[in-house]
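Q&A log
Question type: sequence-to-structure
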Amino acid sequence: MSQTLQDKRPATPVRPTSLAHARLPRWAPAAIAVGSVAAGCGLGLAAGWHSRVQWGLLSALIFVIATYAITAKVEGSRQGKDRVATSIVWVCFILAVIPLLSLAWVTITKGMKVLDPYFLSHSMSGLLDTDEGGGVYHALLGTLEQVGIATLIAAPIGLLTAVYLVEYGRGKLAQAVTFFVDVMTGIPSIVAGLFILATWNLILGFGPSGFAGAMALAILMMPVVVRSTEEMLKLVPNELREASLALGVPKWRTIIKVVLPTAIGGITTGVMLAVARITGETAPVLLLVFGTKLINPNPFEGAQSSLPLYVYEQYAVGTDASVDRAWAAALVLIAFVMILNLVARGIARWKAPKTGR
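Response status: OK
Response body:
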């Protein structure tokens, strides 16, 4: 009887468990950032700090702490830790971007003083370094020729070396090649310049030339090309190779038609990184190219100039006119590297395999 009465009693209603939790609005991180900046600047002024770097670091610290405290209060400690990790990533990104933007801003503002068509189309022939006027044409021409020759030397050798290491390299020879590539990666630029100076100039008896500087730059460029290309080739799925080989395609043709086109975007980026690595080198150029104020279009005979060497020479003079020329040449150098990267990106996108149907 009691069992029957218990069965007839109405069951206590169970409240449904909600899977939705309280969440901060989307504008909350931006509001926290604005408040942190205001608090950091205010505390910095109250403490008598005059450095904006200190204000920025204090604001970043307040932003991370405030993000965790508010998120943990509203969404829970687990979500708060996740937001803290995201905030730290954003803070580190901003701290990395600020110096780059500052460098670009200073270079543009100082370099635009004398940068004009006359500056790009004239050399320093007939002028003293202390005089006003002159241009950068001879240095720009030298940089184009030297970097171009170095790329023609280093890019094919580095690409073929990477293909050997990834597709064919086995045994002691591959280990030796990998070891020497690692050693060459850390070679200082002055050592590469001294090597070419000792062999090409002193032993073989050739004089200063743009080609000598290009060979030293190629030595610096090759290990970067090898390493970047090697990593890109390793990312190509083995299924693509196996499918090509299963159809009876020779291995060399598989590499040319399947592997390299698949990795062409990363390979091009690696080559551009290597070009950017050598474009700003001054020591090998100073030893081997020697520098000149005249226009020398022949890279195989006679002294040449280059943009990094021109910047060094003009800034070392110390006059207002020479310093302005140095900043303008630095801006031209940055623009040169940016244009090369944009062209390489376009070529990589054009040659990359189409993924659409």
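Response note: The chain has a mean pLDDT of 84.
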